[in-house]
Amino acid sequence: MKPTIHLSTKSWTRRDVLRACLCGAGAGALNGMPLVFSRALAADATASNRILVVLELSGGNDGLNTLVPHGDDAYYRHRPRIGIRPDKLRRIDERFGFNPGMAGFEGLYKDGRMAVVHGCGYAQPSFSHFTSMAYWHTGAPNSGEETGWVGRLADAIDTQATPNFIVNIDEAQSLAVSARNHVPVVFDDPERFGRKGLYQTRPLLDQVSDATHDANPSRRYLLEVAKSARAASQLVRDAWAKYKTPVDYGIVAVDLPKIASLIAAGMPTRLYYTSYRHNAFDTHVQQPDLHQRLLTYVSDAVAGFMKDLQRIGRADDVVMLVFSEFGRRVPENTSLGTDHGTANHMYLIGKPVKGGHYGTPPKLDALDEGDNLVFTTDFRRVYASVIDGWLGYDDTRKLLSGNFQTFPIFG
Amino acid sequence: MTRCSPVRGFGLAALLLSGFAVNAAEWAGDLTPIGTQDWNAARAAHLLERAGFGGTPEEIALYAAMTPQAAVRRLVYHKTIPNDLPAFDDSGAHDPGLEPFPPSRPAATDLAKKTGESLGVKVKPAGNRRLQPVADRFFYWLRASRLETHRLAYWWANRMLVTRRPLEEKMALFWHGHFATNEEKVRDYRKMLKQLELFQDKGTGSFRELLISVAQDPAMLAFLDAAVNVKGAPNENFAREIMELFTMGVGNYTETDIREAARAFTGWNFVDLNFVISPDKHDSMVKTVLGRSGNFDGVAVIDVILAHPVTAEYIAGKIYRHFVREDISPELRKALGAKLRDANYQIAPLLETIFLSREFYSPASIGTRIKPPVELVVSTYRKMGLKEIPGVPDFNEVTEMLGQILFYPPTVAGWAHGRSWITPGLLLARGNFVYDTVFPDINFLPPDRYPGNDYQIAAVSEKLAMGLDVTTATKPDAKEMTSISMQMADRDEDFNTRLASYRGWQMAIQKVKPIPRATAQLDLAGMVRAAGCRNAQQAVDVLLARFVSVPVEAGTRARIGKFLESELGTGDLSAAGTFLEEPLRSTLHLILSLPEYQLG
Fold first, then answer.
1. Is B408 in the same domain as B470?
2. Residue B184 domain-assigned?
3. Which of A140, B213, B444, B545 gives the lowest tally of CB atoms within 10 Å of its CB?
4. Residue B480 and residue A247: Cβ atoms within 8 Å?
5. Main-chain dihedrals φ then ψ at residue A353, nearest 5 degrees
C-alpha cells in the first residue's frame, strides 16, 4: 500500500494530513503491527509512510570530480593532472558529466530520479572534517547546538516518540540523529544485533530497571539504551533473516541492503541514517584511481538500493539524501590529490523526486582567497526542502533556527 | 565466624559506596588533595579503575593500606617499579625487499611493468599472468602486516592485564587515541610497535618531547602523508592535524597558520624505520605561525605552538576528560592548563594533581564513566583473575565488535568517547562478550588462520584444489551482476587480483606465528569459596562487589541471588560444591550484562 496523496507542500492542510495519516496507519496494520496503527492515529499531523534515508560520504568528497563541469575551461585549468577529460565522462548534458565509475548515478539522473543541488555550503566554512561534519549533523554551522537535525526532525514529526522511529546503521551513534525524545536504534551488523543468553537467564537479561530519577546521568543513559535495544533487536534480526534479494549492490553496499530489509519488513522507521565511514573520501594523495573506486561503490550501491525498493514495491515511499561535510579545493595539489574545500553538491534521489539541476553552480573563475568555491546554497535549504516538501512538516524555521527557502523538488 | 567478603575490610558494593563521605558532595571542582582520613578501600578501587585497568580485591587492599599520596605516586611515577615483561615475539615476516612498500596495488604492478621488478620480485619473462608473483607478494605483505599487528595487540593487551605499572599502559592507550595512527594506512606492524614503545616510554614524561618524537615517528609520518610535504608544494594534512587534534583544538589558529606551519615540516620523512630530513626538500625561508616569524623548522613550530596558552589547556582538559569526566568547567580547564605549563609540560605532576584531587573523588566523578571497550575487556579479565588474555574469544574480534580495535582507530581524531561507546547494538555486544568468555564457542574458528568470507579466499582455495582453472575459480558467485564494481575486478590479464588475495593469505599464514587459543582459565567456584561464601546470595554479593563499580538495586541483587539458588537447587553452597562452576558462570553472565557494569 502506498500513499496516494501528493500535495504541493504549500497547500498541506491539517485535514489532508490526517487523511495521509490514516493511510499510513492502514499500511502499518496490514503489515501486522497494530501497535503502529494506534500510535499513528494519535500521532502528529504529519505521519505517513514517507521515509527519508540519509547517506553521508565522510572525509570530504571531491564534488568537482564527481559531477564534472566539463563545459567550463576553468575546471581543466585548475586541474591539469587530475581533471577528467570530457571523453572519459558519463555526460548528462552540455555542462556536466559524472565520474566514469558512476553508471548508477548516470542512470538515475537520466531516469529523472535525481535532483542535484549545486553550491551547497555555509558562511565561514570550517576546513576541519570533524567540525564541519558536526555543523552538517546539527544543521547549525558555527554554533553549539547539541542535537542533530534528524533527531530534532523526529521529535517534531513524532511527538509520541514511537520506538524504532530512527535507525542509524554505524559503529557509533551519529550526532545527526541525536534527539531529545527519541532513542535511535543504532547497530552495525544485524546478525549480531541480539543478546546471547541461556533460556533460564532470559527473563533477567530482559529486565531493565527504571532509572528516571537516578542521580547518575551515565546510568540513566545506559538504561534508556538498554530499553531501546530490547525493543529493536528482535525486529531487526527477523527482518534481516527474512530478506533475500536478487539485486546486485556492488562490492561495498554502504549498509543499504540492511535498510532495504527493514523497509521490506515494515519497520515503523521513517528516518534512516548511514554513512560511508572512516573519512574514506579524504583524498589528499594519489586521488584519481581511489576516488573513482569509492564513487563506483557508492553509485552501484545507491542504484542497487533504488532497484531493490522498486522490487519490494516501496519506491514511491523513499527519498535518499546524499551529502559530504565539504568539497575539496578547486586547484589540485602537487600530490595528485586535493585538500579540504568548501561548497559541494547535494543529491536527492528517488522516484518521488523531480530530477534535474537546482541551485546555482559556483563560479570556478571567482574563487575566494583560499582558492575555494563560494557557496551559493545554504545546505539547510536542502534540509528544509526535504523536511517540508517530502515529510510534510512545514515549521522548518524553528527546526533549523532560520528561514530557509525550499526548492520545489517534490510533487 | 567466616566473613563473606572478597578481602578483609572490603565489603559489598553498597557498603563500598557508603564509604564515600557525605561532605564529598562539595568536592566537585576542588583540586585540593584529599586527606589521609578520607582514604579508604572504595576510593582506592576508584583510583585503580581510572588510573589502571581495575583492581582485584587484593590490589585494592594493597593500595588502601597506603596513604593516598603514596598510592597515587606509585601509579604515576611507575618507572621505579620493576616490570620484567617479555618483549614482543616477532614472527620475522618482513624482509628488506619489501622496502619501500608501494602505496597501492596498482603502484606495485605499474612499477613492475616499467622496471621489470617490484617488491623484490622479478616479472616472469613469458607466459600467462606475468605479474602474478608481484601481485601475490603485495597481498602477502598486507595480510602479514595485519596478522602481525593482531599479535601485537595481543601482546599489548597481555601487558595491560599483568603489568605492575598499569598507568604506563593506560597512558599509552590514551596517547594511541590522541595521536591516532591506523595500520590500515601505515601497513607496517613494525612501525606500529615502534610507536607504541614511544607511548609507553614517554607517556608520562614531557609532552614537548613526546610531541616532537611523534612528529618524527615513521608511523605518524606515513599516516599523515609526510612524504609529499615538500618545499614549494606543502601538504597541509600533517600541520592541520598537529594544530587541530594534537595541540590546540579548532578555532585557535587560522588557515594561514596551517599553511605556514606545513612549510616548516617540509622535508620531514622516513626511510624504513628511521626519521630523515631531506635538506633539499625543506623550505628554509621565513614563516609566520601564530603571530611569530622566523626561519622555523618543525621543532621550532612545535615550540611556538607550546608557547600558546591554549595548548596546555587543551591537553590538560583532554586528559581530565578521559580520566575523570566529560564535562569540565572553563575555570578547571584553565587551572589544569596552568599546572601543566608551570610544570614545563611534564605530564606526571598533572596526573598526580588530578588523581589526588577532591574533584576526582567527588560523587559526580565516581562510577559515571563509561568504560571504553579495551578497558572493559581487560578489566573484566583482570577481575576474573586471569593471567593471560584468552585466545577464545579472539581479543581483536571482541574489541572490534565493541568499537575499539587496537592499532585501528577509525579516523585521525581517534575514538569518540563517553556515550558514543554505547548504542543499542554495542550494549548487547558487551553482554555477548561475557557470554563468549564464560561459555566459549565450540565452533570457534581462529581469525588469524581462517580467512572467513573476505575476498572469497576460502571459495577460491577450494575451487583451485578441485582443479578448476584460475579464471573459473576466481569468478564471484554473484547472482545477477549489474554493478560496475563487480564487473571491474580482474580485467587486467597480467595478474588476477582474487588469486593474489588467496596466495597472499596462504603465504602470510606460513610466516606469521599463530595466536595461542586457550579459553579463559576461570575458577569462579574457587573465587567464592576463597571469599568464604556459604549461600547463593553471598556468592552473588561477592561477585557484584568484585566486578560492578556502582550499586545495583536491591531488587536486582535479590533476583540474581534467587536465580543462582534455583540453578543450584539449593541455597547452600556446600551442598552444591561439586557442580558450582557452571551456575556461577551463568550468574556472572547476568551480572556483567547489567547496564551498570559498563560504568567505572
1. no
2. no
3. B444
4. yes
5. -85, 140
State the 10-residue block means of pLDDT for chain A, 411 residues long. Answer: 33 34 33 35 55 97 98 97 97 98 98 98 92 94 88 96 94 91 92 94 91 86 93 94 95 95 96 95 90 96 98 97 97 91 97 98 94 97 98 94 96 77
Residues of A in contact with B401 (CB under 8 A): 192
> Are residues B400 and B460 both part of a single domain?
no
The residue in chain B having the minimum alpha-carbon distance to the alpha carbon of residue A334 is: B233
Which of A176, A45, A139 lies closest to A378 in space, CA to CA?
A139
Domain range for residue B483? 96-147+449-511
Final residue belonging to a domain, choices B275, B307, B339: B307
User: Is the bond preceding B393 in cis, omega lying within 30 degrees of 0?
Assistant: yes
Same domain, B233 and B278: yes
Name the domain count of chain B: 3
List chain B residues with CB under 8 Å of A277: 410
In a domain, B546, yes or no: no
Is the Cα dihedral B76, B206, B368, B387 positive or negative? negative
A172/B423 touch (CB, cutoff 8 Å), yes or no: yes
- Which of B479, B484, B488, B585 should one mutate to test binding to chain A, selecting the residue with the greatest count of A CBs within 10 A? B484
| Res B333: pLDDT | 97
**Is the pLDDT reported for residue B138 higher than 80?**
yes
Residue B407 lies in a domain: yes
| Distance in Å, alpha carbon of B224 to nearest chain A alpha carbon | 10
**Residues on chain B touching A228 (C-beta within 8 angstroms):** 424
Would you say residue B258 lies in a domain? yes
Tell me, yes or no, whether B269 and B299 share the same domain: yes
B499 and B478 part of one domain: yes
Question: Would the ipTM clear 0.85, i.e. be above it?
Answer: yes
Give the pLDDT confidence of B141-192 residue by residue, as tens digits: 999 999 999 999 999 999 999 999 999 999 999 999 999 999 999 999 999 9
State whether residue A325 is helix, strand or coil. coil
Same-domain check for residues B459 and B487: yes
Which class for B26: exposed (0-12), middle (13-18), buried (19 or more C-beta within 10 A)? exposed
Report the first-to-last Cα separation within chain A, whole angstroms: 19
Q: In this predicted structure, what is the pLDDT of residue B95?
A: 95
Q: Give the chain A residue nearest B477 (alpha carbons).
A: A248
Shared domain check, B296 and B231 = yes
* A334 to B482: CB separation less than 8 angstroms, yes or no: no
CA distances for B52 relative to B70, B168, B187, B241, B414, angstroms: 16, 9, 30, 28, 20
Question: Across the A/B interface, how many CB contacts are shorter than 8 Å?
Answer: 203
Q: How far apart are CA A345 and CA A377, in angstroms?
A: 10
Interior/surface letters A151-190, b for 16+ CB within 10 angstroms, e for the rest: bbbbbbbbeeebbbbbbbbbbbbbbbbbbeebbbbbbbeb
Q: Does B5 have pLDDT greater than 90?
A: no
Nearest CA distance, B275 vs chain A (angstrom) = 21
Alpha carbon of residue A115 to chain centroid: 14
Chain A environment of B555 (Cβ under 8 Å): 209
Statement to judge: residues B427 and B484 lie in one domain: no
